[in-house]
Amino acid sequence: MKIFIASDHAGFKLKNQIKNFLQDNDFVVYDLGPMQYNPKDDYSDYAKKLAEKMKNEKDTKGILICSSGVGVCIAANKFSYIRAFNAFNSKLAAVSRKEDNTNVICFGQKFVSFKKAKKILKVWLKTKFSNKERHKRRLKKIKNYD
Fold first, then answer.
1. What range does the domain containing 104 cover?
2. Is 91 exposed, middle or buried (0-12, 13-18, 19+ CB in 10 A)?
3. What pLDDT score was predicted for residue 71?
4. Comparing C-alpha atoms, which of 31, 24, 22, 27 is closest to residue 4?
5. With contact defined as beta carbons under 8 Å apart, do 85 and 123 qualify?
6. Which of 47, 58, 106, 142 could form a disulfide with 69, with the two C-beta atoms 3.0–4.6 Å apart?
7. CA–CA separation, 33 vs 46, rounded Å?
8. Cβ atoms within 10 A of the Cβ of 84, count?
């Protein structure tokens, strides 16, 4: 599985911590930036970059980080093939995968510590989509909104 990761300046520190953690645990991680801290960058640019990378890639997940996690989540969900959620606990991470087949996890660096993010991320990455008919039906309806 490929994992794409990106942030803005307000998520830069957490992005690098998560990237290093994943690489240390043998995940293939592609850092889409920023590569250096820039207080004038915009989360929307990085969310778009990540979403566009995921468009034609099979078996990928994305991680986006900004100050609150909300901005990157909104931006990523503009793309029909992205199912992003703002993560703040492990239970939500598990449900998001089981029932909604999320493929992008968003964190707010102001609200989620690295320690907590690691715990949430471990759950999210190991949880599989349930494939229950009701969940597939709901996701199909949402996909047809476009």
1. 2-143
2. exposed
3. 98
4. 31
5. no
6. 106
7. 7
8. 26
Statement: residue 146 has pLDDT above 80: no
Q: Which amino acid is at 143?
A: K
Structure-token match 């911590």, residue found: 17
pTM over 0.70: yes
User: Which CATH number does the domain housing residue 90 bear?
Assistant: 3.40.1400.10
Q: Which residues neighbour 95 within 8 Å (Cβ) at sequence distance 6 or greater?
A: none
At 93, which amino acid appears?
Answer: A
Q: How many domains does the chain have?
A: 1
